Amino acid sequence: MDTTLDPSQIAIVIAAGGRGERIGGDKPARLLAGRSMLERAIDAAKTWGETIAIAVGEPGQAANSNLPVLLDNAKNLGPISALASAFRFASQQNSSHVLLVSCDMPFLPRDLLPRLAAAIGDKGAALPVAEGHLQAMAGLWRVAPDELSVFIAQGGRSLLRFAEVQEATEIQWPADGSGNAFEDIDDLAQLRDAEARLSLPGQTACSP
């Protein structure tokens, strides 16, 4: 029996609320090989589905997008506030699951969502493991706003810890020789490295 989630059940939320102080501010608008990181993240999201929104921490972020913009209800909670926004949006769309991805991960594999959807089953989350690291900012989550609210009210701030509470399943991601597909860009040196990587023959953002 095929238990893979139907794409219509999955909302996609791009986390774009970080201040990006190490990269000079306004990380989502930072250009990578001529296009903003947010634009690249939106293009990737559109390959996975049609129900897409952007989670931000402050008014005015992602102002140039025509997608729904979700403002964090709680400040200074870090990435878990983006998941709370994602759950809220998904519930409004009657979506049972949400894919949360960070705007600063331009090399995410195109088969990310299909593989996670095929693996999640009845678990609360499905997260990739790449180069020994669990990737909470590129994960598929069962929509559970009440459980997340309790977790936050009890002082929970870690996405990885919430994934444990939700009994997340981990999917080992094989290396393909082109570099870490889950590499994120936090500073100018990493931005330059990513631009150099994109200049290599056959290398594209959101790789196949």
What's the short story on this structure?
Helices cover 29% and strands 20% of the residues.
Question: Can you give a write-up of this model?
Answer:
The protein has 6 helices and 10 strands, in the order βββαββαβαβββααβα. With 208 residues, the chain is of the alpha/beta class. The strands form 2 sheets. Strands 1, 4, 5, 6, 7, 8, 9 and 10 form an 8-stranded mixed beta sheet that branches. It has a two-stranded antiparallel ribbon with strand order 2-3. Strand 7 and strand 8 form a beta hairpin. The two termini are 27 Å apart.
Distance between the termini: 27 Å
SSE topology string: EEEHEEHEHEEEHHEH
Q: What proportion of the residues form beta strands (DSSP E)?
A: 15-25%
- Tell me the number of strands: 10
Structural class: alpha/beta
List the helices and strands and how they pair.
Layout: E1 10-15, E2 31-32, E3 35-36, H1 37-48, E4 52-56, E5 69-71, H2 80-92, E6 97-102, H3 112-120, E7 125-130, E8 133-134, E9 138-142, H4 145-153, H5 159-165, E10 169-172, H6 188-198
Parallel strand pairs: 1-4, 1-6, 4-5, 7-10
Antiparallel strand pairs: 2-3, 6-9, 7-8, 7-9
Provide the descriptors you would attach to this structure in a database record.
alpha/beta; 20% strand; 208 residues; single chain; two-stranded antiparallel sheet
